[in-house]
């Protein structure tokens, strides 16, 4: 049995012949089978994973293997992998098979990563608990009574419980960082435009970013540097060169100036144990000679409303393509074109997705456009300006990742507003496009993990990852 610690050590074990890729895949398949009750995977790609493992084993022997040789990756079920099914955990994409690889998949495979399967998530990545999947809940492997977070819950559980070395998620408002926090792993959302969205099933295109869920910060750096960078298929990707994050974080030695948002730490909704821990972290940094100062950010109340107005608007447009005509589910009860649309969509989409399509269509409607969508855009601009202002004086913004640890199933289901407030600390980074990471920061006295979030200026991934790695060493859990 091979114990995974990080990608570098894994590569050393493969090079020395301690373990083979085929054995690693077998081990992962066994572990997925044993932990089936967690419902983290919607499908395991046994044949293609074993075939890839064989090829990579040969490449290792020949000395031609890529940087991710033998790394077992679980992909969220909204990322396309050619000739494999993808459903965004929705019935509407029933039986749909990807025609091409997402850019991130292409790049990971080119470096000899092995994709082990697709993971359960909230339908179309809409949710904070994984309770919105059409294929059942994912259980948190730390405490099975609790949600794993969402929407990339399956990927977080796959990594936390050792079924895969790395998970891919997408983060529109926290969907990588929040499940990472709930499951005790690292979750990283790069700057908007750093990683290609080609082959990601869109939720809200001006917010969505793909990123890794990993056991440690260094692995997140390795995966991100491979996925990031210019892509002719996605015009929103920056052509800025991608630094070698994993090299740059090694040389990291600076003491960045840290701001914490007073309004976050003083928020009534914040769990007292998390609050205490955040204050301890701040004190420790100060004791080590860092400048850590509280700053005012009196816009917390605007974050969640602006996020839900704008993302639902984009979702209503993005999801209009699921019409029952081109792909996925087509109602058997349809009699003409209009009933094909109505019935296919009515049967195919789940309740939360319908709620968001209706809300988004409403905020975009002629009579309400100015009052909601256009105002939301203005608020977004203001939030971006105010957030970037903080970076005129500070390098890092520190907040808790989430207001509390993982909650029990059903706790927020009846009240969407309560559920939406789970995203209060994570949506800022997506509204403003900045990079953000959740790093494990402790456990509650009931044993539930929670994370700390760090944010940095756009394209300051090296600083952010370097600082986070340093945090990991300073506060080991
Ligand atoms: N929980 C948030 C939502 O429901 C974030 C989702 C995401 O990042 N994909 O929209």
Radius of gyration: 21 Å
Low-confidence stretches: none
CA distance, first residue to last residue: 23 Å
**Count of structural domains:** 2
Query: Helix fraction?
Result: 40-55%
The distinct ligands, each listed once, are: glutamine
Tell me the major beta sheet: 11 strands, mixed
Summarize the structure.
The protein has 477 residues and is an alpha/beta fold. 40% of the residues lie in helices and 12% in strands. The chain is globular and about 65 Å long.
Describe the structure using short key phrases.
477 residues; 17 helices; binds glutamine; alpha/beta; 2 domains; Amidase signature (AS) enzymes
Describe the 3D structure.
This protein is α/β, with parallel strands linked by helices and 477 residues long. It folds into 2 domains: 7-248, Amidase signature (AS) enzymes; 258-304 and 371-435 and 445-474, no CATH class. The protein contains 17 helices and 11 strands. Strands 1-3-2-4-6-5-10-11-9-7-8 form an 11-stranded mixed beta sheet, with helices on both faces. The radius of gyration is 21 Å and the shape is globular. The structure holds glutamine.
